[in-house]
Design a protein that fits this description.
This protein is an alpha/beta fold and 279 residues long. The chain has nine helices and ten strands. The structure holds zinc ion.
Length: 279
């Protein structure tokens, strides 16, 4: 299963050139679009998805589990026909894309970008066509507890938002190290959600803490040596080139994420995404 970790400003990708949320009176403006120094809280994000779900039959929200702080975690399903049963959806042959946001709540672009994506998927005819073949499942605010603790200094090098959520969860665990040991209720919830949907593509959204990349969006794909050879070849020769090319085409070129642990003259290590991460 190819997996893409997108450490990114997704919102630029999804939102560039779209017409919604532009006018002051537009009721479908997201919290970020109303104030670009603000990122939606968990309550604001869940409330926005609930409003979409009450308005559009193609959007469905439900509780899929709890955090360590016993806050409900949401699962948002966006389908063309309103079908929300994973088995029936998989039997229909549609591609399932699972997106996880706010595993690190201070890294907030994915939260806001997915609100816009969900809205645009139901409003824009061109995007509605995508839903004929694809089902989007969004976990809007995975680290619900960390999102409650907001500070202007948790992401000191990052260019916004003005309040950033805390990295640890309600038990001070880094959820991005907990996918195998599952010490947290969040990770157990995620495992159940992942098994239930068995997605074809999984995207985990992050933000670099002020790293001075020339590109806005960076990508970590699964280390290809870990994949079965057919999937590795697909990832390296089809999926990634197409991602980079299509982002170039819309004016948002991407670059691979690199982990710097010394001067560049000593080389740049490939990122090894161990099982403790979502990959
Ligand atoms: Zn992160």
């Amino acid at each position: 299963m190819p997996t893409v970790n997108a450490f990114c400003l997704f919102l630029m990708f999804f939102y560039a050139g779209q017409g919604y949320g532009q006018s002051e009176e537009d009721p479908w403006k997201t919290p970020f679009e109303r104030d670009t120094s603000w990122s939606a809280t968990r309550e604001e994000a869940h409330g926005y998805y609930d409003r979409l779900a009450r308005t559009f039959p193609s959007v469905h929200t439900r509780i899929c589990g709890v955090s360590d702080g016993f806050l409900p975690l949401y699962e948002v399903v966006i389908t063309a026909d309103g079908e929300v049963d994973p088995d029936r959806i998989k039997a229909s042959g549609r591609t399932v894309v699972l997106i996880n946001n706010a595993i690190h709540p201070g890294e907030s672009e994915g939260v806001d970008a997915c609100l816009m994506l969900a809205r645009d998927l139901v409003f824009q005819p061109a995007l509605q066509k995508v839903l004929q073949d694809v089902v989007i499942v969004i976990l809007p605010y995975y680290n619900a507890d960390g999102g409650l603790a907001r500070s202007p200094t948790y992401r000191a090098n990052q260019d916004g938002p003005r309040l950033q959520g805390f990295r640890g969860n309600g038990c001070n665990l880094d959820l991005n190290r907990d996918f195998v040991k599952c010490d947290s209720r969040n990770a157990l919830t995620f495992s159940r959600l992942f098994q239930k949907w068995d997605p074809d593509l999984f995207v985990d959204t992050h933000t670099s803490n002020g790293a001075d990349y020339q590109a806005t969006i960076t990508v970590i794909a699964t280390q290809p040596d870990k994949l079965p050879s057919a999937l590795a070849e697909f990832q390296q020769t089809v999926l990634l080139p197409e991602l980079y090319r299509s982002m170039d085409d819309v004016g948002w070129p991407m670059t691979p994420y690199v982990h710097t642990d010394g001067p560049p003259e000593t080389g740049i290590h490939g990122f090894l995404d161990l099982p403790r991460y979502s990959t």
